[in-house]
Amino acid sequence: MNGVHDMGGMQGLGDLAPEAGGPVFHHPWEARVHALTIASPTRGNIDVGRHQRELIPGPEYLAMSYYEKWFRSLSKLLLQGGFVTPDELASGRPAAGSPKGEPRLPAGAVEAAMARPGSYIREVAAPPAFQPGDAVRCRNLHPRGHTRLPRYVRGHVGEILAWRGAHVFPDSHARGEGEDPRHLYTVRFTARELWGEAGGPRDSIHLDLWEPYLERA
Amino acid sequence: MTHDDSDHHHEHDHEHGQHPPSDMELRVKALEFLLVEKGLVDPAALDAIVDHFEHKVGPRNGARVVARAWFDPAYRARLMEDATAAIAELGYVGGQGEHMMAVENTAGAHNMVVCTLCSCYPWPVLGLPPVWYKSAPYRSRAVIDPRGVLADFGVTLPDEIEVRVWDSTAELRYLVIPERPAGTEALSEDQLAALVTRDGMIGTARL
Description:
- The complex is a heterodimer.
- Chain A has eight helices and six strands.
- Chain A is of the alpha+beta class.
- Chain B has eleven helices and four strands, in the order ααααααββαααββαα.
- Chain B has helices spanning 3-16, 24-37, 43-56, 59-71, 73-81, 83-89, 123-126, 136-144, 146-152, 189-193, 198-202, and strands spanning 99-104, 109-114, 162-167, 172-177.
- At the A-B interface, helix 1, helix 2, helix 4, helix 5 and helix 6 of A face helix 2, helix 3, helix 8, helix 9 and strand 3 of B.
């Protein structure tokens, strides 16, 4: 979706506020939101989680802090998954007679879960359509759902730098249509191709893009 | 925060209404209380997760990777060939580090990492991202004006140095390997690691 989350290349979004060190969490509640999101029974599909945050209406998205967005999304996912009811969320109390669940992530399993070497690479039968060095154009796609094809590269030509194997395809995965693995490539764009004369003549921008986003240029 | 604590604040809000609903601390406590009461979340697991992100991951891990790469040419070669495996050699694995890529700064090229769409960041080696990395100004400008962003961090790059920006649009996570500072030939690996900064590994600083 063409949401405000897709920020690459926008101007006028305010000044940078570099912070050299800084605490990991700036308020204790941020740490709890982070931990709740990881321990939540809704955890498991990273693309659904990302899309939920993208669905926050743009004006609110821009006004919210990072962990406010996480909190909003977690609450929505808990409702959608049927883990809590709107009344429970409003009151903060379990409904009378509501069944007692089992934590998806008990304390004893946290250390192993944090150190689990996962992978998004899957086997597919089809060979990759592109090879390193190929010129590709990003398709002019404007899906209403989740996508990882930013607006700022659509229609632009880049060069395949590397093939990364077939990875879980977020556009399908976020819709609950399974992992639908597709070939993934690192694509190099010159800054001049993306930004015209505003781009540095030697500079480049690299994105990791799935095959359905690309066509031969 | 203990369970009883949540309970207390919940009652307080419910009976006296002194906290506005925008009070994030209260709302988060209420949600945690609800999920714990329903048996969906183990409060000790939350403590363990917070401890993990506050104490077990962070830029010190990435600094060890960089120092090893500076110190040991064979390790550097493995890191550039298969960063995920080379980083796992040092024990750094887990979520948001499944597919690691090391990108090396040289005399002629400077690398900088961003996630324009959200906040992707290599948790096992850098921990959680700083606020500015997740902010709209950084996410929007890093790709269109990387030299301006670098200038905001006090870095002025000569025109002849090429800037390579890496937008983390998939599950590949990028770690910038800064150039080894001059005059560090006599330093030990531990001393080298102490020179490596978080921003150096994001690419918003030069060492």
